[in-house]
Protein: LSME1 protein
Amino acid sequence: MERPSLEFSLPDAHEEGKLYVVDSLNNLNKLNVCPDESQHSLDEEENTGGTAESMAGSNASNQRLFFVTFILTLTVSLALVSFVIFLIFQTRNEVDQISSRLLSEKKNIEELKKLNNIILKHLNQSRIKE
Structure:
């Protein structure tokens, strides 16, 4: 049993395999990164070489988007902080009202205790007389 001899050049096949793998990865990357509609525009940009202009426009639009988002975030944060401060003042006012009611009720209870003591003394004195 003789083994068949392998008579092909390994370096050439290896190089072709590398090129095939790189080409396949590039195609896969284009499919994953770009949807079908934008693939045509990317191919046109590669052919025309207008990437520098589009990147500058993209950078400016990204800056505008960031600025608008930043201003919107600051506005929402300011509104939330104002609402929290309003709630704190409202809560403080209600607590003050409740505490003043409690103080007045405490005074009423003390007056009722004094009246109760006076009534008890009077009753005790009237029993002693009888």
Summary: Residues 5-10 have pLDDT under 50 and may be disordered. The two ends are 143 Å apart (CA to CA).
